[in-house]
Structures are given as C-alpha cells and as structure tokens.
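Practice problem: predict the structure.
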Amino acid sequence: MIREDEDKIYVCRCEEVTVGDVRRAIEAGADSIRDIKLRTHAGMGVCQGMTCRKNIERMLREKKIDPDACHTSQRFPVRMVQLGELARLVKEEQHE
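Answer:
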C-alpha cells in the first residue's frame, strides 16, 4: 500500500528527487537506473548515487524490472579541490 505522503520523500537528497519523481519516471517508461538518472537526475549529485542507488534499484524490482540486467557505470564521489592546490600541482610538475 502506497501512502500519499510517501511520494514526497527524497530518494536522492543531492538532486532533491522524490519517490514520486522516480515512480513517475518508471510509469513513463524508464526501465533502468540510467533511464531514471536521465529523466530525474537522481544519482548525479555530489555522492554520485552512493546514497540513492539502492533505493532506486528496490523501486525497479518492485515493478518487476531487473536493474542488474542493464549495466550502468557508477562514478566514485568527487571531492572539492582548492584552486591553490591545483596551481601547486602544476608548479610541481613543471619542476620535475
């Protein structure tokens, strides 16, 4: 049973994608994590899907869609880099 307020729960906090957004994407024909990512931007935030991917996979399985059948790449989270750090690296490379 689906509660009405459940649609407002965030699946992807980074991109503010809700359960309702993912459900609508699936109903519109999204049949893979990649399709959901393209339609909703879930998994494209700072954590690169480390938080939301398992929930999206579960939602696909509930609709009898096998997320393992379609291979999608997953990037590791990035970290912020100060411009000064980059400049220092360039200087070090020039001295080598």
